[in-house]
Every structure is written in structure tokens, then in C-alpha cells.
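Hey, I was hoping to borrow your eyes for a little while. I've dropped the whole record in just underneath, so have a look:

——
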Amino acid sequence: MLKADVLAHFKSQAEVAKALAISAQAVSNWGTRVPPLRAAQLHRLTRGKLRFDPDEYQDWYTKNASGPEAA
């Protein structure tokens, strides 16, 4: 899920943050792609209008596999 698509749907970072109950700064820190757990939340919140596809995140999981959540 691309951040640009999320912003287009919600119209602002503040509205995305409000929907997810997080700070606008957290949304601002996202890269081009929404983090996978947030993407899954947004998929549920928008009832599929924003689509989460785990297959799009295979490279993200590989890149982040050595992080603290990998254990």
C-alpha cells in the first residue's frame, strides 16, 4: 500500500493519524510504502477501499528480518 494512496483517501496526514490513533509525525516518518501492520489496519478501517496485499511486502520483511521483531 502506497502512502500517496492513503493520503489521497484521507486528504491529509492528520486525518490518517486520527484514523489510526497515532501521531501525524508517525505518518510523516513512513516511506513510500505504508508499514505492513498499518496497511492491514487501513485495509480494515476502509473496508478494503485501501487494499493490503501481503505479497507486496516480501522485500520489506526480508530487509527488516534482522530487526528486533525477527525473533
